[in-house]
Amino acid sequence: PRHLSRANTSILAAVESVYWCMVDAAQAVLMNVEELAPSPEEIPKLLIQIYVDTGKLSMKYVEWFNEMYAVVHHISHGQITEVSGKEIHMYKERADEFLGKMAELVKQSS
């Protein structure tokens, strides 16, 4: 049971790592336009103002970020204690696409 518990903890930590990847990428793109690195709570609002409202970013990326924010906070408060392999795969795929989009926005503004 202890090994299984450790494995589950590692899986939840992997989800948190995916979230922090998205936070870091979003902060980088916002700092590239001379915004101070915002707290994770402020990121969606700034992405909308600077990129979605100007047609440079699809709202789906902000929605994905918001979902990851909620999931990680539910994990940290013990409201989510297990994540399926299918969910992990989806979160990782979304984070990969999110990261690529943030890198594209940085290149566009350079």
SS element count, helices: 4
The structural class is: mainly alpha
Order of helices and strands: HHHH
Strand content: under 5%
Query: Which percent range fits the helix content?
Result: over 70%
Q: What does the main sheet amount to?
A: none
Overall 3D shape:
elongated
Give the CA-CA distance, first to last residue. Answer: 52 Å
- Give Rg in angstroms: 15 Å
Total strand segments = 0
Low-confidence stretches: none
Classify the oligomer.
Answer: single chain
Mean pLDDT: 95
Give a written overview of the molecule:
The longest helix has 31 residues, at 2-32. Helix 1 (2-32) crosses helix 2 (43-52), helix 1 (2-32) runs antiparallel to helix 3 (59-76) and helix 1 runs parallel beside helix 4 (85-109). The relative contact order is 0.17. The protein is elongated. The protein is mainly α and 110 residues long. It has four helices and no strands. It starts with a helix and ends with a helix. The model has no long low-confidence stretch (mean pLDDT 95).
Write a short abstract of this structure.
The chain contains four helices and no strands.
Helix and strand topology:
Elements: H1 2-32, H2 43-52, H3 59-76, H4 85-109
What key attributes describe this structure?
single chain; 110 residues; mainly alpha; 4 helices; elongated
